[in-house]
Structure formats: structure tokens, C-alpha cells
Amino acid sequence: MFKGSIVAMVTPFKDDKVDENTLKDLVEFYIKNSTSALVPCGTTGESATLTYEEHDRVIEVVIQQSKGRIPVIAGTGSNSTQEAIILTQHAERVGANASLQVAPYYNRPTQKGLYEHFKAISESVKIPIVLYNIASRTGVNIEPETIAKLAKDCKNIAGVKEASGSLEQMARIKMLCPEEFCLLSGEDALTLPALSIGASGVISVVANIVPRDVANLVSEFQKGNLEKAGNLHYQLMPLIKAMFVETNPIPLKTAMGLLKMCRPDLRLPLCSMSDENLAKLKKALRDYGLLE
């Protein structure tokens, strides 16, 4: 269902408010550069520090600006099942094509709790649900067996953004889930390996600044041009590494500021980069040819 290069969008700020004009410009930039879908209000979009009103508004703006040209997968997860349902129902009302649901963070539910959480959300809406597994941030791993049970029992749980960092886990998901269940890489560095074991695409951080290159990587692989896909993978790797030299989206937003794509403004507790890491980021941008 979902494939290709899907951009995990930043939320641009100006004077500590959402910069809607820049957000609209970014939507246009990604669509013009072969992006397959957009994810507002995920980790990269600083969803944890958006107010409920801002969260809803960012999703509305991205849907309105995209005008149905590509799907919008709205980040509407929460560690509260009821809050996730409210956010997801709003996203459905305003026209989101799907919802990205992160595993509940901090409260560390059991696998049964995860199952009940996602099942309740899926039953509250009709749009497809994409699970988001990132134990490094949430403190809990959605086991492949739990994902498979959800895929079997909940007709609109359609895929998973897998950011465990484990190709073995991704392979188990492919083995256990229905053929139509969508596996998406959640880590830029693993996009090519993930494609090789059956992923249909990536929800990408680095595609914020080089959307066409990430789209081309996936496209060349899917066309069977493995050498071209491999070359793009290795070309992207230093830039990908620089995007995670500090907590995402700190380096990404800093890079976008340097490239005049949006202001580099972050919300506390995220803060500006150290001088040492900023130098590494600038070098990676120069080496890639993005910065003079």
C-alpha cells in the first residue's frame, strides 16, 4: 500500500509558533522531488512538544497543501490510548490517508497491552494504521508475533515503520505477516538492506534535504537496478551519519537552516548543536555538494 520515499517531515517554527508558510513550501518541494508520501507530526516533526492545537493544525495544513497528490500519513500516536484515538479521529476527519502509531512510550506496556492499544485505535477509525516500532525511544519493542496478530485481527492495520535497527526482526515480520502487509524501513542507513528483504520503502529523515536521491534509491532498487541503488546508498551514507550525530531532528533542522529551507529553531528540551558536531555536519553537507 505504501512504498517509495516517504518524508518524515520537520515542523518549522518561527517565533516559537508553527511557520505555516514554510510548511506549505516544504510540501511543494517534496512533491516536486518524487516523494511518495508525507508524514507530519512524527518524531522528526517534534510531535512531543507540539500542543494539541498545533498538532492538529500541522496535519491539516499538510493535507490541504498536498491536495491529494500524494498520501499523508499523519503521526497521531500517544502513550495514552484515549489521546491517540482523539488525535487519529481528527486526522481522519480532515482527510488523512493513514495514521502512524508509535508504540506507547514511558509506561512500557506488555505485548498484550500493545495489542489492546493498537486494536482500540484501529477500531475507532476506518483509515489504515501504520505501526511505528522504535524501542530506543519508547522503551518497548513491538514483537513480530504481536505485529502479525494485529495484522490478522485488525483489517486496517496495514503496515509497520520498523526502526528497531534489526534486519532479523524485519525478516520475521515479513515471514509472519500477510503478503500485503507493508514493511517500511524506519532507519535511513538500513533502507537498501531492508528493501532487499522485502520492505516497500522508507520513512526517511534525510529525505527532508535530499528527497529525490532517496526516492531514486528506492526506485532503482525496485526496477532491479541494484548497482545504481547501491551507489546511491553509499553516496548517502556520510550524510545519513551526519543527520544522527546528535538526537534527531537537531542535526536535520540545523542543516535545513544552513540550506535556507527553514529556520533551525527547535523547542526545548532539544537545543542547538555542539561546535564539534556542527563542524561534522557542515563537512558532510559540503562533501555532498549541498553547501559551499
Structural descriptors:
292 residues; alpha/beta; TIM Barrel; 12 helices; 47% helix; 13% strand; globular
What does this structure look like?
The protein has 292 residues and is α/β, with parallel strands linked by helices. It has a single domain, classed as Aldolase class I (TIM Barrel, Alpha-Beta Barrel). The chain is 47% helix and 13% strand. It has twelve helices and ten strands. The chain has helices at residues 20-32, 52-66, 81-93, 111-124, 135-138, 144-153, 167-176, 191-196, 211-222, 226-243, 250-258, 275-288, and strands spanning 4-8, 13-14, 17-18, 37-39, 73-75, 98-102, 129-133, 157-162, 182-185, 201-204. It has an eight-stranded parallel β-sheet. Strands 2-3 form a two-stranded antiparallel ribbon. Strand 8 (157-162), helix 7 and strand 9 form a beta-alpha-beta unit. The chain is globular and about 55 Å long.
The biggest sheet amounts to: 8 strands, parallel
CATH first level: Alpha Beta
Query: Class by helix and strand content?
Result: alpha/beta
How helical, in percent, are the residues? 40-55%
* Number of continuous helical runs: 12
User: Within the largest sheet, what's the order of strands?
Assistant: 4-1-10-9-8-7-6-5
Total domains: 1
Percent strand equals 5-15%
The low-confidence runs, each spanning 5 or more residues with pLDDT under 50, are none
Shape: globular
Q: What is the chains' assembly state?
A: single chain
- What's the total count of β strands? 10
* CATH fold title: TIM Barrel
Architecture, according to CATH? Alpha-Beta Barrel
User: Radius of gyration in whole Å, from Cα?
Assistant: 18 Å
The CA-CA distance between the termini, in Å, is 39 Å
What's the rounded overall pLDDT mean? 97
CATH superfamily: Aldolase class I
Secondary-structure element string: EEEHEHEHEHEHHEHEHEHHHH
